[in-house]
Design goal:
5-stranded parallel β-sheet, alpha/beta, FAD/NAD(P)-binding domain, about 30% helix, about 375 residues, 4-stranded mixed β-sheet, 2 domains, 9 helices
Length: about 375
Amino acid sequence: MKKVIIIGASYAGLYAVKKFSKYKDIEVILFDKNDYHYMQVESYGFVSTTYDISDVTIDINKYINSLNKNIKFKKEKVEFFDSDLKEITTATDTKYSYDYLIIATGSLTNFPIQVPNIKKYSVGIKTIQSASKVLETFNSLINKKAYKNNSAKNFNIVIGGAGLSGVEVAAQMAALIKDKFPKIQNNSFAINIIIVDGMKTVLPNMDDRLVDACKNRLEELNIKTYLGSFIKDVDENKIYLANETIIDYDYFIFTGGIKAVNIKSSKDYEINKLNQYIVNGNLQLKGERDIFVIGDAAEVISNNKYIAPTAQLAIQSGKYVSTYIRNELLYKYTEEFTVKSNGVLISLGGNYAIGLVYNKYFVEGFFAYLIKKFVAYSHKIKFV
């Protein structure tokens, strides 16, 4: 029986596991330092108090136990892999051999190194720990501070990044304040939600229909935007933009981009500026036949175009690699990996969303919200 080791219970890793569970003649061991999977795509609802932690996490042990016995899970951090010996080493200095290795380590928030102090004074939402800090602050703010604060000072929450995560977090917070805590926004005290991004528009590089609808929704929610000038520096209460604008803030959430998580190895492998491993058309690590990289950890090129990391990409890459390995064991040929976009859905607070279905049909409002909820539920139900 061939042994496959998967490092990382990310979206990509879990979908690979699910596919492998159909192949009882392949032994699979999934490694992760945590025994839960954090659904980052639903983080906007968690940090704004809309969702509970159970809504954005998956119990890995429970899920693995529901699968065939060929799938096992070990709560251990993998520190090192050796492609010549074909083995990994965990934090407890335990070694495990493999026939195939799949790296699905995901990503963390990419705090730009050229901006002094940004990591010191801001918080990301790419881990459940950091997202919980945001949740705690926002929950305390809307439930206590707003009604007890007698000063005239407003509270400014700044979101760094006007991409998907940034606009979703900003809109959800603003909508919750507007719909459920209207007394907060009174003459003596208000919570201001502010978005900052160096790009000239929200949702950069997306369809104009999405951009326009997003702009309108942010204006409706009284979210102020500072666009077209990158952050130059940050201190404990001010953000300095390159165009000399200075923004006062009380809490700074940074959502601007990702940085892939790498693992130490016996060889130096080529990575891009986002720390993503360079892979070939079959998602094999450059220079290796039996090591694959999937999800955010891989630089994926499809139809000669770089594909930005998304949940869709992670899911499709996880399914592809498990199929590829199975086919190889059966001496079957597998076409190179290509990405099929099913569109995008963006939650913009309350029961309002926008999206492109099959990258063609524009939807908005409550109907788009229902589609997004259905898609999120259909993913989670696969792992419970």
